[in-house]
């Protein structure tokens, strides 16, 4: 028996998670996985109910689970709240408390959706990038941090910090991922300016000897932001710290033009958390318009990384390709004139294609 | 009489600066500006000659000047050197010592070069963005910073820091720039995670009352990295800190597909420094292949911002448009099959078009 904690979250979260549940249930029955799924509250939904974006009960639920599925958190309703009371804090505390240090964010072109890319088709046709982003360190969590009054003047600071163990464990993840792919690893830093990323480059370079089959390169973050647009198919695996990865993984995903399609996994030593990379889209919430495929592909990543069911992961991925081949489109990925299906119908179609 | 300090720097620096000199000399004579130009060493060239990327004589030369022209610094020859002995340090120390806190980086489409953009033409046709990047603060210069050994383990950190005065002075520059343009100002931060950028957002918001004609919005840095690709023409002026601006201004410039065309200005209370945004391109150095137009357009920015010669700035900019209209192309901006001119010939053509 495996325990799955499900946090639908805010906005379109509940709908896309419900559609993904259809797929998960179908796989569970067909494969005899014997999953025990329990829902919990996080983000704005948790704030409304308990005044805390990650109530103790939710944290316990996640800690006791083998894997976590998350919809999306946040929305304008909670934007005015103080920092500790923001939906995002629920997400950041989940990552930190579960020690989910490795964020895997694939940015992959779906050939059926090539025309959705803002880039010229010849530049993106072959794009298949995996961003491996460190997720529990860096300036996100570094101490000290504060807004202070110094001689009556406001002053604020944060600390970017990494130690060699933190760098090493995420670099291992990236090297291994590259071994299973095209064996190209590009590590991103700003080693010409920042000590923290100079250590980053040093430690990553040291590990290269353990992975002689992987070709390691280094790139400054400003150049990486350019190269992702200029010639994105040069990249296989991109390894980044938490802050640079936040920026570059969003940039990379936008290259595909279909961020409603892109899943993510956040892995630690034990359990993993799986979520679409898109946000909670409050403007279309509750209207059966949202694209559930990123969440469904996140379920595939869960089958692969947390449930040891690689074959079923591939079957879900193939089912998604099939519904795209069949011309099914939610509004976000429909070209002008194409017929549109709803969130639930898309989930059902994937189940059928399984 | 106005004093101009010229630092050709490394790689293609000397060639592009020589071509720009042709234009500057022509304007000087025609407009009777009475310029006194003096060359100095910075970057790798200075390291080779004096073992210091910014020798005291160069700093004095820059301090005594009304404006500084810089070619480009850096190259693989100096990559192995320790941090304090890197060409980039010359640049960073110039910025800091001259208090050049406002970096203006226009990312503009040249209609003649539309097909060079990696983006679909309909998305970039109207792109005309000015990135206003803070240049003397943030994690670039924040203290403390170090690589340390803690219990035998390496650990490194940097400090992101801003006080309200630093934020206010760069925000004023951005608001004023927006007033002279389309009156849209988008300030970039990561206020949902970083205290430093929460203060940033707070202070920028306070200033908005002084500029009622400017429409101020705020955007998280990860979203900005996406929106720049998804719909770049939504932006007029983008206001950023030093680190985020390093990344986003490079991304924005790449949208145009012609970074060999883009100038920049770094302004303080007094003098300004002007340089192309591209690098030193050591692979084509000394071959009369480099595109001097970004440096020539930087001269135009100098005429505008440091020499009070707006009309001559516009004449230089029009001359550049004219040579493009006439079909002159250096290798970097030539489409397949187009005839190519060299660095010096391009400079001469601009002089003729003046
Ligand atoms: C919501 C926010 C805190 C989060 C981050 O910055 O990590 C998001 O942008 C992401 O990338 O998952
Ligand atoms: C060379 C480097 C130190 C510099 C920076 O990071 O500011 C460069 O990337 C730039 O943007 O001018």
TrEMBL record, chains A, B:
Binds 1 Mg(2+) or Mn(2+) ion per subunit. GO terms for molecular function: 3-isopropylmalate dehydrogenase activity; magnesium ion binding; NAD binding. NAD(+) binds at residues 75-88, 279-291. Its EC number is 1.1.1.85. InterPro entries: IsoCit/isopropylmalate_DH_CS, IsoPropMal-DH-like_dom, Isopropylmalate_DH. One of its GO terms (cellular component) is cytosol. The keyword Cytoplasm applies. Its main location: cytoplasm. It is found in: Cytoplasm. Gene3D superfamilies: Isopropylmalate Dehydrogenase (3.40.718.10). One of its GO terms (biological process) is L-leucine biosynthetic process. The record marks 140, 190 as: Important for catalysis. PROSITE patterns: IDH_IMDH. Its cofactor is Mn(2+); Mg(2+). Residues 3-350 form the Isopropylmalate dehydrogenase-like domain. Mg(2+) binds at residues 222, 246, 250. Keywords: Amino-acid biosynthesis, Branched-chain amino acid biosynthesis, Cytoplasm, Leucine biosynthesis, Magnesium, Manganese, Metal-binding, NAD, Oxidoreductase. It catalyses: (2R,3S)-3-isopropylmalate + NAD(+) = 4-methyl-2-oxopentanoate + CO2 + NADH. Pathway: Amino-acid biosynthesis; L-leucine biosynthesis; L-leucine from 3-methyl-2-oxobutanoate: step 3/4. Substrate binds at residues 95, 105, 133, 222. Homodimer. Belongs to the isocitrate and isopropylmalate dehydrogenases family. LeuB type 1 subfamily. PANTHER family: 3-ISOPROPYLMALATE DEHYDROGENASE (PTHR42979). Catalyzes the oxidation of 3-carboxy-2-hydroxy-4-methylpentanoate (3-isopropylmalate) to 3-carboxy-4-methyl-2-oxopentanoate. The product decarboxylates to 4-methyl-2 oxopentanoate. This is 3-isopropylmalate dehydrogenase. It comes from Acidithiobacillus thiooxidans ATCC 19377.
